[in-house]
Amino acid sequence: MIGLLLSIFIFNLVAFTTNKRLTINQIVHIWYFTTLLQMAFDMVIEFKYFGYWYFTKKIEWGSYLIHTVLLPPVNMMFLNWYPFNKKIGIKIFYILFWSLGCLLYELITLLPEPIGYFHYGWWNIWNSAIENPFLFVILLFYYKWICKIEAKIKNPNV
Question: What residues form the membrane-spanning segments (predicted)?
Fold first, then answer.
């Protein structure tokens, strides 16, 4: 639990103190989107198929912390620093860099408690390696959609 609480503190501190791009509206959207997507995914992979679990195989409050205050600031940082105006190669490298960072963090969470809190069933690091870039691309599409909605609200005649 110490590793989780320390991560929550650091990720939120960095996400909110370095944010230069995201509006409050976008932060709220990203926060809810991240939480909903993670909980929906975990309901299937974690609770139905026991692919992985946090702490124990039971539903626990610690898992809610992971969904609600650990993962959203990571997505905030990803979007805040994303190179929107760069070439496609740089964008791909950025996504792969963040995917690798997530994999390294996942390996740390596999350490024994009090640092680690994540456990594999049939899931493994290679599943995450394949999944993470797709999740970042989905997040980017969602963010761009929210930006279009905001632009439409600001200028309804467009």
Answer: 30-55, 61-80, 92-111, 123-143
CA distance 54 to 60: 8
DSSP letter (8 states) at residue 48: I
Looking at residue 34, its amino acid is T
What is the rounded CA–CA span in Å between residue 51 and residue 31?
24
What H or E segment, with its residue span, contains residue 105? Answer: helix 88-109
Q: Note the pLDDT tens digit of each residue in 102-134.
A: 999 999 999 999 999 999 999 999 999 999 999
Type of residue found at 86 = K
Domain ranges for the chain: 2-154
Q: At residue 14, what is the residue type?
A: V
- Read off the pTM: 0.92
Cis-peptide, bond into residue 72, ω within 30° of zero: no
* DSSP H stretches of helix in 48-124: 61-65, 71-81, 88-109
Q: How many helices (H) and strands (E) does the chain have?
A: 6, 2
Rounded-to-integer distance, Cα 102 and Cα 136, Å? 11
